[in-house]
Amino acid sequence: ECSDCGTKVSKTLATRTHRCPSCGLVIDRDHNAALNILSRAGTARSHVRGESSDGGTARKSRSTSHGSLKQEAPSLAAG
Fold first, then answer.
1. What is the rounded average pLDDT of the residues 51-59?
2. Which residues contact 15 (CB under 8 A, 6 or more apart)?
3. Which residue has the higher pLDDT, 69 or 29?
4. Would 70 be classed as within a structural domain?
């Protein structure tokens, strides 16, 4: 399912890139899946989709390049 427009896009397990024929979104398959999971969990997508915090929309590219998606876990040390 396209994380941008919701269109079902069939792909094999070997297909690593999500390419939506409806809206033109091209992103890594796992990134697309993560966006869908966040959406279904009720997490706000504004920070994920490039929208600014003041409610405006930043320029969004249909084709994205991907660096590392790994993020640091927050510190759990008691203060």
1. 42
2. 29
3. 29
4. no
Average pLDDT, the chain: 74
20, amino acid identity:
C
For 4-44, give the DSSP string: TT-------TT--EEE-TTT--EEEHHHHHHHHHHHHTT--
Total domains present in the chain: 1
- Neighbour tally for 76: CB within 10 Å: 5
Q: Using CA atoms in the order 10, 30, 65, 2, what is the torsion angle rounded to 10 degrees?
A: 40
Q: Which residues 6+ apart lie within 8 Å of 29 measured at CB?
A: 11, 15, 16, 17, 18
Q: Flag whether 23 is in a domain.
A: yes
pLDDT in tens, 5-28: 999 999 999 999 999 999 999 999
What pLDDT sits at residue 43?
Answer: 75
Give dist(CA 27, CA 16) in Å, integer: 9
